[in-house]
Design a protein that fits this description.
This protein is mostly helical and 149 residues long. It has 7 helices and 4 strands. It is 56% helix and 8% strand. A two-stranded antiparallel ribbon has the order 1-2. Strands 3-4 form a two-stranded antiparallel sheet. Bound molecules: zinc ion (2 copies). One zinc ion (ZN) binds next to helix 7. Belongs to the DtxR/MntR family.
Length: 149
């Protein structure tokens, strides 16, 4: 369940909205009900179902009949990357005058558009920090790539 097993993704595959879904499902853990996702993310149930079907079709989620969805191994590795990207970028902004809260909220608006390659380079240049402003930072793909350059 780590990023190294999925060297091919660029980090630009998903919209900000889909990122919210994956992060919520990872935070929640295990199988998550569609109704819970739609109420927490404040999206109507038919849109939620449609989005979950798209994410399942692309291999990020499994449908568990009558119970909801959970992350596939690929979905979990991808979501770990999404969290790493958020934490690296928000930490970066706190070095340039933003408070933790400001950094988290700014980054939430643009993180979907920053590539994995850029995140790995920023992470390396920051010395692979262990803690971001909203949690620990994992270093799988960024360290792995360094060994090969
Ligand atoms: Zn944050
Ligand atoms: Zn790193």
């Amino acid at each position: 369940m780590n990023e190294q097993n999925y060297p091919e993704f660029t980090g630009l595959e998903l919209s900000p909205r889909k990122i919210d879904y994956l992060k919520f499902i990872l935070e929640k853990g295990g199988t998550v009900k569609t109704t819970e996702i739609s109420s927490v993310l404040k999206v109507d149930p038919s849109t939620t179902t449609k989005t979950l079907n798209e994410l399942a079709g692309a291999g990020y989620l499994n449908h568990i009949p009558y119970r909801g969805v959970d992350l596939t191994e690929m979905g979990e590795a991808y979501t770990q990357f999404l969290i790493r990207r958020h934490r690296i970028l928000s930490l970066l902004l706190t070095h340039y005058g933003l408070s933790s809260e400001e950094a988290c909220s700014e980054v939430s608006r643009f993180e979907a558009f920053v590539s994995r390659d850029a995140i790995n380079k920023i992470c390396s240049s920051m010395g692979h920090p262990m803690f971001g402003v909203c949690g620990e930072i994992s270093h799988e793909n960024c360290l792995h790539e360094e060994k090969h350059h």
